[in-house]
Design brief:
DNA-binding; about 40% helix; 7-stranded mixed β-sheet; MutS, DNA mismatch repair protein, Chain A, domain 3; elongated; alpha/beta; 6-stranded mixed β-sheet; 7 domains; single chain; about 850 residues
């Protein structure tokens, strides 16, 4: 490095400490990037890549740069692309520095640690998630949204549960131990790896003594147990890794992270990754958009923090009947009082994102406009509290009692900050008149000084008789008097020449110089004093961050309740009875999203009864497009809505609390991991059979369709039997299938019932009635659906012929199956190749010939007779 310039040596030394970040290296008014960072950043930011000399081998060094005062959008774009950005500032005054200016990294911006509003989605958390695996496949999971201060921790057993929590939190960045780098791909789940940044932390960070010390020091507790983390050995390690990472990247205090919320998954309904995706809880399967999801339907929140709270409620439905009823009482009261709902919405309409404002203020990254936004939000609280005064439900009363108007904070900001402050903090114009005596005096001097300059110009014009005389200012010479050369003979003796121009001369006078020093000194002092006063005000507000966080959380909760009530009132939802029974009974249930989006066809409601005694498994048959999948999903969504505290789309519902919802719906593959569609289907089915309990709800759609017909029917039949017969996992199950053979399960299994989606045939057309009725369907009407989809007419007609041949089982002359016979009635010659499968008559003879009738018991004989009957 001896042949490098001092500046490049300094750059490379700092860069070596941040090898995985793009280094924004402050040089004057620009952040410069060099070498590989410059090449990468120029491509992402679409800015010019240039070069300068000299590198270590004498070659030119690639570089690019962005203005420091407008760097925020460039940083946001890099972070959005998954990059980390290390901000390296000049930490000493270049005017007083001896040699090269001292520089150091003051902050590292990563995808999981973004606080700037323009880089965040208002109604979504931006989580940094930490995962660590301990002994016995026990996982610690912790996640933090630094923009709001929300910090949660839990522990789960097994890979599926761990990655289920990842799917729920949907983090932008994931922290893992360095030793986990190589094994990540073997435990990951599908597209959970997409669009995420993975950061690996040295293994020593997870040492138990170090992690517990981090937790104790940050939260000021004697033990992590004081935070509700009893028994959370791995959870504490995961949470502490986040605190360590904050120390490494934020280079300062993160005082707004005041609470670590420990939760246990048993407190909530468990929803795995597949279920969240299939039920389209927060985004649609096809486009990944909010519209068309359950969240899109229920979200009428007026605030960003309310939107995030609703997303959390949907992701973590309750299992506590008491807590569910508390929410229901509040929703019911608001749904029945349109005036109160409207008043709440009006009051909340002017409330900004208090959680993120609090975060930016605590991190000292807020501007004056953030403080004004906080003040305007706090002024909305007193009318809101007045509205809630007559509320009767316990939850609304508790919320009213917990919302703090923070009068003194609003008053401080109102007295100290102007109503419309500038964006830039270092140019003055922030602090209100009357807030600080010295500042007011300096402003008076500044205003008077400027008035003096105007009066002095008029005076000098009169004294000299030079009407073109001007008093002007620039940063190099300060104030000066400019006189054209044609008037130089008229200048007084006390004029002191400062500069000669082509057509004029510039002068100063002792009087002008005296006032210049007074005015300019005042203006410079004003800017410094305003910034100092702003920082004092911001620190005072930050000191009340805990109160503000509690108030923000309660306002968000109120916003969610009002949103649920608004939807319940408009969509005519009912309040479900949620209890500890095993009954799932729904009268005239509707799919909440389909009902709202499909305006061209009236939604047909349907009933359902599931329990663990007589109606445990319901086999649903019927044509494609008839509504089987819609019906099953609507049942799952109604259960989920009931347990998050919402009213539901039905005329009446009784929901025995469900501990988990499982879904196996649709076809998907994971080719990157060598898993076919059928393999993914079988893996998801296996997970259901391993984890389901009698308190679970299982939704199965078309099990076994990814393999041969015989294999598929066999697997589907065996899965249904297992769910029925195995006490450990005897879950309430909806099982949609086109294998009509499965309807025979109802004959041999007492808790299995058949139902189908009714259709009407008319003139070779099929009309979907969308009604679920008892009994099994005998046809799937696939050919009619194919015609609706636009299959050519000749394909449809040929399919009918083949279907007839299959159903009759007849053979043409020469032993050729009639399925091969065309319209002309000519069948191909019989192939000498033997069939892979024996025909029914051959199988029957073979079975009979193998029987030893003399040794059969009467019961065995009856069972065999039943078997032979089904073979005919």
């Amino acid at each position: 490095m001896s042949d490098l310039t001092p500046m490049m040596r300094q750059y490379l030394e700092i860069k070596s400490d941040h090898p995985d970040s793009i280094l924004f290296f402050r040089l004057g008014d620009f952040y410069e990037m060099f070498l590989d960072d410059a090449v990468k950043a120029s491509r992402i930011l679409d800015i010019t890549l240039t070069s300068r000399g000299k590198g270590g081998d004498g070659a030119d060094v690639p570089l690019c740069g962005v203005p420091y005062h407008s760097a925020a959008p460039y940083i946001a774009k890099l972070v959005e692309a998954g990059e980390k950005v290390a901000i390296c500032e000049q930490v000493e005054d270049p005017k007083t520095a001896k040699g090269i200016v001292k520089r150091q990294v003051v902050k590292v911006v990563t995808p999981g640690l973004v606080v700037e509003a323009e880089s965040l989605s208002p109604k979504e958390n931006n989580f940094l998630l930490s995962l660590v695996r301990g002994d016995g496949d026990r996982w610690g999971v912790a996640y933090l949204d630094i923009s709001t201060g929300e910090f949660r921790v839990t522990e789960v057993d097994g890979n599926d549960a761990a990655w289920g929590e990842v799917a729920c939190a949907n983090p932008r960045e994931i922290l893992l131990p360095e030793s986990f780098r190589e094994s990540l791909s073997s435990v990951s789940r599908g597209d959970l790896l997409a669009d995420r940044t993975f950061t690996y932390v040295d293994d020593w960070v997870y040492d138990q003594d170090y992690t517990e010390r981090l937790i104790r020091n940050h939260f000021g507790v004697a033990s992590p147990d004081a935070l509700g983390c009893e028994g959370f050995v791995e959870g504490v390690r995961a949470a502490a890794a986040i605190l360590h990472y904050l120390q490494e990247t934020q280079k300062g205090k993160v005082d707004h992270i005041r609470e670590l919320s420990a939760y246990r998954t048993q407190e909530f309904m468990v929803l795995d990754e597949s279920t969240r995706r299939n039920l389209e809880l927060t985004s649609t399967l096809s486009e990944g958009k909010k519209r068309g999801s359950l969240l899109g339907l229920l979200d009428r929140t007026a605030t960003a923090m309310g939107g995030r709270k609703l997303r959390q409620w949907i992701s973590y439905p309750l299992v506590s009947i008491e807590k569910i009823k508390e929410r229901q009482d509040a929703v019911g009261e608001l749904a029945g009082d349109p005036g109160l709902r409207a008043g709440i919405r009006e009051a909340l309409d002017g409330v900004y994102d208090l959680e993120r404002l609090n975060g930016r203020i605590s991190l000292a990254s807020s501007g004056a406009k953030d403080l004004v936004a906080l003040k305007m939000s706090l002024l909305r609280i007193p009318p809101l509290l007045a509205l809630l005064g007559p509320a009767q439900s316990s939850m609304l009363q508790e919320l009213r009692g917990g919302i703090d108007p923070l009068h003194e904070v609003a008053d401080l900001i109102g007295r100290g900050i102007v109503d419309d402050p500038p964006f830039v903090l270092r140019e003055g114009g922030i602090i209100a008149d009357g807030y600080h005596a010295e500042l007011d005096e300096l402003r008076a001097i500044s205003r008077e000084g400027k008035g003096f300059i105007a009066r002095l110009e008029a005076k000098e014009k009169a004294r000299t008789g030079i009407t073109s005389l001007k008093i002007r200012y620039n940063k190099v010479f300060g104030y000066y008097i400019e006189v054209t050369k044609s008037n130089l003979a008229a200048i007084p003796d006390d004029y002191i020449r400062r500069q000669t121009l082509a057509n004029a001369e510039r002068f100063i006078t002792p009087e002008l110089k005296e006032y210049e020093e007074k005015v300019l000194g005042a203006e410079e002092r004003i800017v410094d004093l305003e910034y100092s006063l702003f920082q004092q005000i911001r620190q005072c507000v930050a000191a009340e961050g805990e109160r503000l966080a509690r108030t923000a959380d309660r306002i968000a909760t109120l916003d969610v309740l009002a949103s649920l009530a608004d939807v319940a009132h408009e969509r005519n939802y009912c309040r479900p009875l949620v209890d500890d029974s095993d009954i799932l009974s729904i009268s005239e249930g509707r799919h909440p999203v389909v009902e709202a989006l499909n305006v061209s066809e009236r939604f047909v409601p349907n009933d359902l009864l599931l329990d663990n005694n007589e109606h445990q498994v319901v086999i649903i048959t019927g044509p494609n497009m008839a509504g089987k999948s819609t019906f099953m999903r609507q049942v799952a969504l109604i259960v989920l809505m009931a347990q998050l505290g919402s009213f539901v789309p039905a005329t009446e519902a009784r929901i025995g609390v469900v501990d988990r919802i499982f879904t196996r719906v649709g076809a998907s593959d994971n080719l990157a991991r060598g898993q076919s569609t059928f393999m993914v289907e079988m893996m998801e089915t296996a997970a259901i059979l391993r984890n389901a309990t009698p308190k679970s709800l299982v939704v199965l759609d078309e099990i076994g369709r990814g393999t041969s017909t015989f294999d598929g029917v066999s697997i589907a039949w065996a899965v249904a039997e297992y769910l029925h017969d195995t006490d450990r996992c005897a879950a309430k199950t909806l099982f949609a299938t086109h294998y009509h053979e499965l309807t025979e399960l109802a004959v041999t299994r007492s808790k299995i019932k058949n139902c189908n989606v009714a259709v009407k045939e008319w003139n070779d057309q099929v009309i979907f009635l969308r009604k679920i009725v008892e009994g099994g369907a005998s046809h799937s009407y696939g050919i009619q659906v194919g015609r609706l989809a636009g299959l050519p007419a000749e394909v449809v007609e040929r399919a009918k012929e083949i279907l007839h041949n299959l159903e009759t089982g007849e053979y043409a002359e020469g032993g050729v199956p009639r399925i091969a016979k065309g319209k002309r009635g000519v069948a191909p010659k019989a192939s000498p190749q033997l069939s892979l499968f024996e025909q029914g008559e051959d199988l029957l003879r073979k079975r009979l010939s193998g029987l030893n009738i003399s040794s059969l018991t009467p019961l065995e004989a009856l069972n065999i007779l039943d078997e032979l009957k089904r073979m005919v």
